[in-house]
Automatic annotation (TrEMBL):
Molecular function in Gene Ontology: 2-oxoglutarate-dependent dioxygenase activity; metal ion binding
Name the UniProt record assigns to this protein: Gibberellin biosynthesis-related protein GA2ox9
Taxonomic lineage from the root: Eukaryota, Viridiplantae, Streptophyta, Embryophyta, Tracheophyta
GO biological process: coumarin biosynthetic process; response to molecule of fungal origin
Domain Fe2OG dioxygenase, first and last residues per copy: 161-261
Domain of life: Eukaryota
Record-stated family: Belongs to the iron/ascorbate-dependent oxidoreductase family.
Amino acid sequence: MVVISQNPTMKMEKIRDDIELPIINLCNRSEAMKEMVKACEEYGFFKVINHGVPQGIISQVEEEARGFFAKPGPEKMRAGPPYGCKNIGLQGDVGEVEYLILQTNSPFIIPTDESNKFRSAINAYVEAVRKLACDILDLLVEGVCGSEGGSALSRLMRDSENDSILRLNHYPAGEVSKIGFGEHTDPQIITLLRSNGVEGLQISVQDGLWVPVNPYPDSAFCVNVGDILRVMTNGRFVSVKHRVAVQAYESRMSIAYFVAPALHATVSCLPGLGLPLYRSFTWGEYKQAVYTGRLADTRLNLFALP
Ligand code: GA4
């Protein structure tokens, strides 16, 4: 069904609540491969279950993150640069969100975490989601290029200098008219997202038409295609704009693992996928464009070939 939103800051937008993202069972690998490729072409988003990330590891990091965000503001500010509140990026974008952004290729400290429990929970989580990301990337490459594709994508993140990041977000409950995180595509290869069962994520299936992503099943990871994977599949997979709306009834918490290559890695289309739509570039070059632009920009246009 298509409903017109009454929401003043989200303007008069259409919300479609009859589209469900596919829930893909990773136990059945050949089925999963086909379903994932189809979902990446159609929505740029899917959910995975039986993903192999132990529930204990997920619960631990979620509990620590809840504890961190429940601390008083000044104490969180002490966490310094990894902690941010409302300001998104460097060009004046804002949202009703507080967050921790952690670079996963170098050791980090969270000054409020005297016992190091949070850090250990994060490290265990990153190790587990990294494996899952490699697994998904290998299946996707095989689905698109056949077995000759090998580990073309997962190899990028096996590089110890890969630029993957972990972002923990907290969207306090509030006025539903407010945007927690404005519309954007993820710049990286793929994103693996967990949420605390509170809705808010919406994806843009076509201009001005938003689909709310239901946060169930609870055990699932929501996976989405980033701009780099779009380039590498020569536009066959779509990196789709998404955003997060504030919920009135409960705070939303999410943990996103953004899979990125090393800064020096060259990004270009995988072999056998036709005439390239984009020129080759390094991830460092793309990241630079990402941080000099605004959140909602369609940065890939800058790299499109005539
Ligand atoms: C969107 C995806 C990730 O959250 C993120 C964001 C980054 C940031 O918050 O620092 C950016 C945004 C994201 C894309 C455009 C730029 C950079 C904010 C912003 C305005 C961590 C990322 O990699 O790109």
